[in-house]
Amino acid sequence: MTDPGRTTILRAARKAFAREPYDAVTLRGVAADAGVSAALIVKHFGGKEALFERVADFTEAAQLLLAAPNERLGEHAVRTLVEYRRDNDQDLLVRVVFAAGKADERAQIREHFRDQVTRAFAARLTGPDAELRAALITAHLLGLGAAIAIDKTGPIATADVATVAELYAPAIQQLIH
Fold first, then answer.
1. Does pLDDT of 134 surpass 90?
2. pLDDT for the residue numbered 110
3. Mean pLDDT value of segment 94-115
4. How far is CA 119 from CA 30, 65, 74, 138, 164, in A?
5. 19 by DSSP, 3-state: which?
6. 18-23 mean pLDDT
7. What's the CA gap between 92 and 168, in Å, rounded?
8. What are phi and psi of 131, to 5 degrees?
9. In sequence order, which ranges of the chain are alpha helices (DSSP H)?
């Protein structure tokens, strides 16, 4: 997805669905936040339900984070998370944190996250407690993403990617083996 219009729409939709219940989000509101027409959203996504499904989908995030052999997976996941944030001005995973409410659509975002990210990590792990270790890995990644999102000019957000990976990845890698 390299189309800047689609990216802008998704960014605005992620914010809207994170702040408001599904019923309160409108295509016009998302369009206004994105600086596009509601018709463009319909053209790209087909409507509000399809747009929400795209916002709730973590498949791309999981593919990017897991695109390395297990021996290098911790470092790769950290580098990918930080580089994606810097290149796209958005996080791969943090939107699930905003889905902590009780509404059905927020439960759906959490369910997609578990199915598409945490269980994908668990499927790669061997040995005991794979599901627990996968949940701890995603907790580490969520924490890193949240720290960067909260303090956009802080030391984590501005540090060299290699340094962040060198310091942070060993804890994740320990959970992989």
1. yes
2. 86
3. 77
4. 31, 13, 16, 10, 25
5. helix
6. 81
7. 17
8. -65, -40
9. 4-19, 27-34, 38-45, 48-55, 59-65, 73-88, 104-113, 119-124, 130-150, 155-158, 161-176
The whole-angstrom separation of Cα 70 and Cα 172 is 11
Token digits for 11? Answer: 């960014």
> How confident is the model over 4-25, as a mean pLDDT?
84
Q: Which amino acid is at 35?
A: G
Rounded Cα distance between 145 and 117, Å, is: 14
CB neighbour list of residue 116: distance below 8 Å, 6 or more residues apart:
57, 58, 59, 61, 62
Give the whole-angstrom CA distance, residue 85 versus residue 73.
18
Separation in Å, CA 33 to CA 50, 57, 152: 18, 21, 21
Rounded to whole angstroms, the Cα distance separating 23 from 72 reads 42
Give the burial string for 55-72 (b: 16+ CB within 10 Å, else e).
bbebeebbebbbebeeee
Kindly give, in sequence order, each residue whose CB lies less than 8 Å from that of residue 28, ignoring residues fewer than 6 positions away: 38
**What's the pLDDT score for residue 101?**
57
Contact 144, 52 (CB under 8 A): no
Among all chains, which residue has been given the structure tokens 């409507």?
A: 47
